[in-house]
UniProtKB/TrEMBL annotation:
One of its GO terms (molecular function) is MAP kinase kinase activity. It comes from Mikania micrantha (bitter vine). Residues 29-44 have a biased composition (Polar residues). This is mitogen-activated protein kinase kinase. It comes from the Eukaryota.
Amino acid sequence: MALVRGSRQSKLGLRLPDITERRPRFPPTASQLPKTTASQQPTTTADYETVQVLGHGNGGTVYKVVQKKTSNLFALKVVNAGSDPTMRRQVFREMDILRRTDSPYVVKCHEIFEKPDGDIAILMEYMDAGTLDSLSKTGGALTERTLAHVARQILNGLNYLHAHKIVHRDIKPANLLVNKNMEVKIADFGVSKIMHRTLDACDSYVGTCAYMSPERFDPDSYGANYNGYSGDIWSLGLTMLELFVGHFPLLPTGQKPDWATLMCAICFGEPPSLPEGVSDEFRGFIECCLQKDSGKRWTASQLLSHPFCRQPDNN
């Protein structure tokens, strides 16, 4: 979900429900319930105050909230899960994955609640610099040294997710959160899959289509056995390239993307390349990510050992 900064507001539009207000349409498993201890009581509505709306998209809204007792900031995402039992099972399954994820390179989920109307409220850590998308738009294109630092963190996150058999499927600048210390964390894995489920309606979420690998568009031409892990690597390559050149690399600057244009560019065009003047290490890294043949793309683990990622961590 892309995070777009909005204006301050005094009240939360969708209130965080008490634990006793949960009324699932089907019995949740023990692993689906939030884990609390004697010193960590369940969150209630009165514990938080809304600061502002951070963004909208993918059927939900993200709020910046502050915990009154500690003054700690959090991000609260409210997802419109709907009343479809199948959809709700998928939501709980994916939210369980999110809760179980424990990596410094993946945004932390603190608690999950279900409202009586079926909406899901997710309390997450707050990243105070927004996303890599917003950072690049306000601060300009990133340098090679900074991108090497960014790439290492994303790859560590992907390596963790892939080792736990989790495919993100929506790596892009808007789904990579960042704080003022330039710590980067992967967010929203599984959410777009929950909200869209299939590729049939991909024209309705162009931003996601833009970072799809060729085999997701055309599995017959690029290998019938779709490998989601290598698909994440393609998306990473496009992301790194975009953050360097300052615009989406598959289309001319300012051109509005559409499904047909993106499909032609990804499936029939040449893989995008870096401009003249970049280092051989960076160029080689991008080429390892943007191989049209998914079998030739490097894995997250392999890319962590690439010379580009082994540069001194000095931003």
